# Entry
Amino acid sequence: MVGPKKNILVINPNSSLTMTAAIRRGLESISLPENISWQCQHLSAAPIGIETAAHIEEVIPLLQQVASAKHCDALVVSCFSDPGVAQLRKDLAVPIFGIGESAYQQAASVSRNVGIISILDASVGRHKIALQQLDLLSYITADIALNLSTTQLHETQMVSKRLKEVAAQLVEKGADCLVLGCAGLADYRQMLSSAMQLPVIEPSQAALLAAAASFDITLT
# Structure
């Protein structure tokens, strides 16, 4: 029996059309029940990438404005830093999913030896705080940065090489499951999983699956 129609809004909270397209391609590979649909959009007034604490603060009001104006049954914030997720959960009556939180939770269900591939060294500290808040830090073997900007992530050959280098370092430290620490890495999940012969968690996919699963949960 098919349930009522549900729509998931996926927001890439930066202004990069390239990254939004990568997120969309990753989500298109996910099979959902026929009554569940999703839409993906960017924030045209936001920075081209979210790489600093200042960027995170800048996009929160933009997210609040767009999310409040759109009708959806669940919302996914497609940035690994989960900007605005806590505030949106206070403001809106629908389930809110940050892709960072969703990826950590999915990875923790797969392994107790998780390696995170961050974009920048500056991201690692933010990830640690989030993991501590979720009580999942003990699942993390290591968090190593690519040290590439979000605007470089379309340079396929260079990014693929760097991903495999960092993944190998994480495996040496004991990781047997990898998490891609940026929505802009969505196109590389399958390549990296095949190259390393390990499960690789793509965070936007993890959040979309979590959002879809939430529709089956009835609160009484």
Strands lie at 6-12, 36-42, 74-77, 96-98, 114-118, 140-145, 177-180, 200-201. The first strand starts at residue 6 and ends at 12. The longest helix spans residues 53-69.
